[in-house]
């Protein structure tokens, strides 16, 4: 039986579809299927201005996939950010259409490897570092109480001083002394000057405070090196907010020139 000569193939290169009701372009005079009948759909070489066919349905243009082995078309304009070519949904990702242009600012393999190693080193150093728990107010208060208890156990002073009147200090002795420091207790009713005399007497160091031309033996705050006025009582001293001294504090006993208000080189005085 002879084959019927019905229909024609679409002239669009990527189509070639057999259409039983082909359309002839009135510009280039070529035959096209229904999908490519409009000049803009088959990229008509003879058409220089947009043409709308009478009775043709208006709608969005379709976009051809730029991948050579793909004939898919999409109603959406899908453009690769790197190579700026159009692709179908199936090949829209760079890996799917074997994109030759890397996206801008994309890290290289070497850079990614270095970053990964850097992160690993940071995590390793944090894991190896000892965990230090911040000391809260409650734990500090507990530590201060324990320190004061130890100070009381080792302190020396006038045994006739009532327990309720006693104030405790650790005193760093003058540079060159046989002992570095000693724990003392004094009556809160005493002046700073009387406490100095008692310190010198108990540890057996020279005290020439009554000699006008001699160096003076004074007490200083350990925190900032400020001198403690000899005429002030210890009770008032603890109530003075400007003086960094409290029950259990560390003081420094040293020979200085008359009129000295601040002790220099505090780092030379170590608590032992």
UniProtKB/TrEMBL annotation:
GO cellular component: cytoplasm
InterPro entries on file: AN1-like_Znf, UBL_ZFAND1-like, Znf_AN1
Lineage top rank: taxon: Eukaryota
UniProtKB keywords: Metal-binding, Zinc, Zinc-finger
Signal peptide per UniProt: none
Xref: PANTHER family: AN1-TYPE ZINC FINGER PROTEIN 1, ARSENITE INDUCUBLE RNA ASSOCIATED PROTEIN AIP-1-RELATED
Identification of the protein by name: AN1-type domain-containing protein
Organism ancestry: Eukaryota, Metazoa, Spiralia, Lophotrochozoa, Annelida
